[in-house]
Amino acid sequence: MAARRRHWRLYALGGGLGHLTRAAALARAAVARGHAVEVLTNSPFAPGLPLESWLGPGATVHRVDARLDKAATVAAVGAWLAGSTPDVLVVDTFPRGLAGELVALLPTVRAPRVLVHRDLNPVYVERFDVAHAVDAFDLLVVPGEDAPFAHHPRAVRTAPWLLLDADALVSREEARRQLGMEDGDARPVVAVMGCGRPEEVAEAGETADRLRVSLGERAAVGWLVPTAHASGQAVWPALAVMRGVDVLVGAGGYNTVQEARATGTPLVAWARPRLYDRQALRLREAERVGDAAQLEAKVALLLQEGTRARPAAWVNGVHAAVEAIERVARQAGA
User: What confidence tier does 195 reach under pLDDT thresholds 50, 70, 90?
Assistant: First the structure.
């Protein structure tokens, strides 16, 4: 157990669902250790997710409207940081802040600062002198993938972070029921993940429609979305039902890929263009597709290969990350 209850603040600004998912994984593990955790997010999905109840007692989520302009978002970050002094401040991915605002704000935070350090586009790293920004942090936690400053003297590597440990997933039978499969229906399940930018969510729905046509009765195809949608099936966290998925279709974002790898779920994915994240590097050649025809062919081939053995457990790096952050807080005398 933690030496004593501490107040953590987690900065998780960024589009889509990835930053919030990593922050939620860390927050849930920290809350389970007895800490009080505040999460700041501007994910467009955040308003529709039951984050507080899922994270547990001691968690607070501050939702910044994703539609705010840069100035209003920066003001919201400043107000959040000025609210009270935390024992630990954790920043996901962007050491300068999403809009560069942390360069001026971090010196006002009288608490240990922790960076969740992931791969970043080298153009961004060089242009904005990220090496200098990284030095403002007392600890860099590298969650399962290489990163520009992974060899920094204050860096600690962990296994990839996941929202859930293996024992929190439902059984394959229950997962299939939650995915809409009736008992006695033996068809494999193809799940198309709809998250990311709004246009990518819509594109996922179109992909699901095409797969239903091309696969016919060979598989049941579901379009999974994290929050309520007119046509998609709202499932969050999708990891909870991954044992019921035979083929996962999505993008090469951190969380989708790590969840597929941990659960042994065959993955077919687009490498989406991002300003900072390099999805093409994360995906293996066998997973990556470049067009709809290639996607349909790879899904069909995976279904032909049939059910494969899946791991029963995995190492969830959030627990080692929590322990590393606790050590920094103790050393700082917080």
Answer: confident
As given in the structure block, the two tokens for residue 105 are 């704000």
In a domain, 311, yes or no: no
Which tokens in the block code for residue 36? 């009080």
Structural domain contains residue 210 = yes
pLDDT single digits (tens) 284-299: 999 999 999 999 999 9
CATH code for the domain in which residue 297 is found: 3.40.50.2000
Residue 139 CA to residue 325 CA, distance in Å, equals 8
Which pLDDT does position 2 carry in this prediction?
42
How many structural domains comprise the chain?
Answer: 2
Which of the four pLDDT bands, split at 50, 70 and 90, describes residue 96?
very high
Cβ neighbours, 10 Å, residue 184: 5
My answer on whether 19 and 148 are in the same domain is yes
131-154 mean pLDDT: 96
Same domain, 127 and 205: no
Please tell me whether residues 132 and 177 are part of one structural domain. no
Cβ neighbours for 50, distance < 8 A, ≥ 6 positions apart: none
Cβ distance 117 to 90 under 8 Å?
A: no
Does the residue 254 lie in any domain? yes
Range of the domain at 92: 7-161+316-331
The whole-model pTM stands at 0.94
Residues 258 and 174 in one domain: yes
Confidence of residue 1 (pLDDT cuts 50, 70, 90): very low
